Predict the 3D structure of the following.
Amino acid sequence: MHSTSRLAAPTAIDDLLLFRLSVLLATGGAPVIRLCEGRHGITRREWRVLSLLGRHADLSPSQLAEHAHLDRARTSRTIGTLVDKQLLQRLPRPGDRRQATLQLTDAGQALVAEIFPRVRDINHQLLAALSAEQVSLLDGLLDALQAQADGLPPAADLPKADRHRGKGRLPRTD
């Protein structure tokens, strides 16, 4: 008898793909957070920015925001913090000093070189639950899901959260 998967016919929040992925990220990502914050004094967002710049040198802040899938304001704050920590530097672009590219400092490069192998080990530990064929299949499935997500209509017709006003309460009707 063929049963319908939880993902195909969700009946509760813990059956939804995005919720399950969020739980996996929280659980599987906890050792990465502990490594970054506890041992190296950087946040997960700072790690993301550093590791992306380690792979893609000389990005502009807006290019970095796009690669990191972060909004520009969060990216800008993270860049400022990493500059203060002397892990990142802004370099003016030749011919247009208003524009800057971002580059890891020597300390930033050393930190990425130290952390990445440990994060890669955590990644390998998670994937150890799967066969090589399943890992390959998962890789393709993630690509397909990302392509589908990229094609979803923007949420522009939905209201943005106003977290500063009323702490998310519904507006008063009286």
